[in-house]
């Protein structure tokens, strides 16, 4: 999701120079001092004929924003999200839908005090409730699909495919929001499709030899399709958030996301019969850490978008892919194939190009 974009730091002007004193020698200084005090009290400068006087009233200096702080927050967000994804991969005896339910419960406990403190209510504006409902359903479905992809295919493959979301967002914005879709967008879409094909490696294009994969090809295919589904549903979610704009409180949007996500997870677990408490204490610790790191990533991403433009933030956010490769090699002892590396380069180039192109269009 992309919260509100904050304005940049205001430029400060240097205070004016003091006026030259033309009082003749021997003149009393007390009337001048009294006149100056009266001038400051009234806000009118007699020599300058202006109110207030630039030489008397100096603007308060604002503390300059640390350059690059928003991008640093984005880097922290990418790191926390990647660590949370690693914990999802490490959980053994808990289904992806149940992991999503635990995360929704954890975030709900954090969001409720925020909504009470900000006095925004729990329902939302009347004209926006249908969009909030769709945002909750689509966003939680995207989360479930991503967690399922992490459990069934490699961490790097699932992360890379999920980064095709900006390309689908551009297509859906063209269809539903009537935004412009140029030849550049079509080129970026083709790059993303090529990257996904290189990662999925369908047998009718690459043959039936999939012995180099650690997991079975059927699981790899399920995880890859779940990642594509995540990108599609996440793109729909971004379109809905863009449609709502600034008329809905950010915490209220998350509230619908966690409540409807929990309801969706409970229904799926009831139908499939997959609900069970984790037997291992380590899995319980991982579930808590998934909630903590997911919330930390969300907070830092929100803070980054409050002080930095969305374009640079989206580009630095691709560090998720780098962290996924590093964690997969170090903690999972799984070296990605050259097909995955090539697909990652195509998808990252596609998403970064689409973001930069949209950023340049909006800055004109």
Structure description:
This protein has 364 residues and is mostly helical. It has helices at 29-42, 69-90, 96-118, 129-152, 155-162, 165-176, 183-200, 203-206, 217-244, 250-272, 281-307, 310-316, 319-331, 338-363. It is globular and about 55 Å long.
What descriptive keywords fit this protein?
repeat; 364 residues; globular; single chain; mainly alpha; transmembrane; transmembrane helix; 14 helices; disordered N terminus; Solute carrier family 35 member G1; EamA_dom
Q: Secondary structure elements and their pairing?
A:
Elements (H helix, E strand, L loop, with lengths): L28 H14 L26 H22 L5 H23 L10 H24 L2 H8 L2 H12 L6 H18 L2 H4 L10 H28 L5 H23 L8 H27 L2 H7 L2 H13 L6 H26 L1
Helix pairs in contact: 2-11, 2-12, 2-13, 3-4, 3-10, 3-11, 4-5, 4-9, 4-10, 5-9, 5-13, 5-14, 6-7, 6-9, 6-14, 7-14, 12-14
What is the CA-based Rg, rounded? 27 Å
Quaternary structure of the protein:
single chain
Determine the number of helices (DSSP H or I, runs of at least 4 residues): 14
Low-confidence stretches: 1-57
Distance between the termini: 24 Å
The helix fraction, in percent, is 55-70%
User: What is the approximate shape?
Assistant: globular
User: Structural class of the helix and strand makeup?
Assistant: mainly alpha
Mean pLDDT: 78
Query: The biggest beta sheet, please?
Result: none
Order of helices and strands: HHHHHHHHHHHHHH
Number of strands: 0
Percent of residues in β-strands: under 5%
| Whole-number total of structural domains | 1
């Amino acid at each position: 999701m992309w919260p509100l974009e904050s304005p940049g730091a205001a430029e400060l002007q240097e205070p004016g120079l003091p006026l030259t004193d033309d009082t003749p020698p021997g003149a009393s200084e007390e009337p001048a001092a009294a006149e100056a005090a009266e001038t400051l009290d009234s806000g009118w400068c007699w020599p300058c004929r202006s109110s207030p006087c630039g030489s008397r009233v100096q603007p308060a200096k604002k503390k300059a924003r640390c350059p690059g702080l928003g991008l640093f927050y984005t880097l922290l967000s990418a790191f926390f999200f990647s660590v949370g994804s690693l914990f999802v991969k490490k959980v053994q005896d808990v289904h992806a839908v149940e992991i999503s339910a635990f995360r929704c419960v954890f975030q709900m406990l954090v969001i409720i005090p925020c909504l009470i403190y900000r006095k925004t209510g729990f329902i939302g504006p009347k004209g926006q409730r249908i969009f909030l409902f769709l945002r909750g359903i689509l966003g939680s479905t995207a989360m479930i699909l991503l967690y399922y992809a992490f459990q069934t295919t490699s961490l790097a493959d699932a992360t890379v495919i999920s980064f095709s979301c900006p390309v689908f967002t551009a297509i859906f914005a063209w269809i539903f929001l009537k935004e412009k879709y140029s030849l550049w967008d079509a080129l970026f879409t083709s790059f993303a499709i090529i990257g996904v094909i290189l990662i999925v490696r369908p047998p009718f294009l690459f043959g039936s030899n999939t012995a180099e994969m650690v997991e079975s090809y059927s699981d790899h295919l399920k995880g890859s399709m779940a990642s594509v589904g995540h990108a599609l549903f996440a793109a729909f979610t971004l379109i809905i958030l863009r449609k709502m704009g600034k008329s809905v409180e950010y915490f209220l949007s998350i509230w619908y996301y966690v409540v409807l996500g929990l309801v969706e997870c409970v229904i799926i677990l009831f139908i499939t019969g997959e609900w069970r408490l984790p037997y291992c204490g380590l899995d319980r610790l991982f579930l808590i850490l998934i909630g903590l790191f997911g919330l930390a990533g969300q907070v830092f991403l929100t803070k980054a978008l409050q002080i930095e433009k969305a374009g640079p933030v989206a580009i630095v956010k691709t560090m998720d892919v780098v962290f996924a490769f590093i964690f997969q090699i170090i903690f999972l002892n799984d070296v990605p194939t050259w097909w995955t590396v090539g697909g990652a380069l195509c998808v990252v180039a596609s998403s970064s190009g689409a973001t930069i192109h949209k950023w340049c269009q909006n800055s004109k």
